[in-house]
Every structure is written in structure tokens, then in C-alpha cells.
Amino acid sequence: MATPGGAGAPYSNLGLKRWEEGRKKWLEVEESGVEKTKRAVNVNIDLIIDRIFSPESDGTLPHAVPLPQLIDLMTDLWEADGLFD
């Protein structure tokens, strides 16, 4: 099995290192009580709805949409259909 450092170098789990660094940053934000606010992104609502509900679509979105924005979009849709009061 090849090691990331080359022949003879000790094995280094780069994925684990990246995960630990990301976790450390996440915990720092949690401990400080300061959360980076994610801004809403411009989305084509019709495209998003088509991608989610179309039988021909695999459900993937054309780009990342912040979860709070997606929840607002779905809530508005359900309210309009009388499914959410």
C-alpha cells in the first residue's frame, strides 16, 4: 500500500487530519458563541422546486442553498398548497 509521504515514509492519514482541523474550527465557533451568518443566495425558485419534485430529476440542486433559505422556500410552498398552517 502506498503511503502519502512516499516510499518508506510513515503513514499519514490526511483525511483524518482535515477532519480534525475542521472539527477544531467548528468547536471554536461554538465555544465563542459567535456564529458566522450565512447570507441568502439568489435562487431560481422554480428551478429549485422542479429539481426537488420532478420525477425525472435526481433531486440535486444546481448549487448550494443555505438550509434556512430552503426551509423558508418549502414552508411558503406548503402554505400556498394549504399543507402547512
Radius of gyration: 21 Å
Sketch the topology as an H/E string, one letter per element. HHH
Strand fraction equals under 5%
Largest sheet: none
Number of helices: 3
Short note summarizing the structure:
The chain is mainly α and 85 residues long.
Q: What does this protein look like?
A:
The protein is mainly alpha-helical and 85 residues long. The chain contains three helices and no strands. The radius of gyration is 21 Å and the shape is elongated.
Protein traits:
mainly alpha
How is the topology of this model organized?
Layout: H1 14-32, H2 45-53, H3 67-80
